[in-house]
Design goal:
This protein is mainly beta and 205 residues long. The chain has one domain: Lipocalin (Beta Barrel). Helices cover 13% and strands 56% of the residues. Strand 2 and strand 3 form a beta hairpin. The radius of gyration is 17 Å and the shape is globular.
């Protein structure tokens, strides 16, 4: 078995610094055990976008399972992390709004030693992240983005793409996640932030 299959995308990017994460986060960001998936459930204290005039665009992105137009507090959610395809890591996040469920999905890969996240049903939006560890917590900051369209990989200019800042931290007996998207002209355009519990489950035979 190769190193890329034995280790997670985060371990491959962080290298020896992976050991600086808190023990709970090391368990979360490691590759799930063979034949298992990771499942989490919790509540986002806040989730969505306050920018009303962006709702038509966010509604289209919701169809692509990238973002969504709703905004609410106290939003229950679940997350499932699945190894693969190949040496990647796929995630499915389900946001349970009153009367509606929204899904975000993505797959992460390591490309040239950097973490690239392919978002949406077909991975149509690609975002590259810088990773850092601060006081045992993981911080991820996007620095470039590409749109995949008609077989082309088109770089998005900075003025057209929001920057993403993500923090994962251990908070008492739960994991805290905080994700914020900021546009250089519009400010914060999307957020989700809350806490959850997490465990590994064996895949059904």
């Amino acid at each position: 078995m190769t190193e890329s299959v034995q280790t997670s995308v985060y371990q491959r990017v962080l290298g020896p610094r992976f050991a600086e994460l808190s023990p709970e986060l090391r368990a979360y960001f490691a590759r799930p055990p063979e034949g298992a998936v990771g499942r989490g459930a919790g509540v986002y204290e806040v989730a969505g976008s306050r920018v009303r005039w962006l709702r038509p665009a966010l509604a289209f992105l919701a169809w692509r399972r990238i973002l969504f137009p709703e905004y609410a507090t106290g939003v229950p959610f679940t997350i499932t992390n699945i190894p693969g395809p190949g040496d990647g890591l796929s995630a499915r996040r389900e946001f349970h709004f009153p009367g509606r469920e929204r899904v975000m999905q993505d797959t992460m890969h390591v490309i040239d030693g950097r973490l690239h996240d392919f978002l949406g049903r077909r991975g149509g939006l690609e975002v590259r992240f810088d990773l850092d560890i601060v006081d045992g917590s993981l911080r991820m900051t996007s620095d470039r983005a590409w749109l995949h369209l008609l077989g082309l990989r088109l770089p998005l200019p900075a003025l057209l793409s929001a920057r993403v800042a993500l923090t994962e931290a251990w908070d008492g007996d739960v994991q805290r996640v905080d994700v914020r998207m900021r546009h250089p002209l519009l400010g914060e355009v999307f957020v989700y932030s809350g806490t959850f519990g997490y465990r590994y489950e064996a895949l059904p035979d």
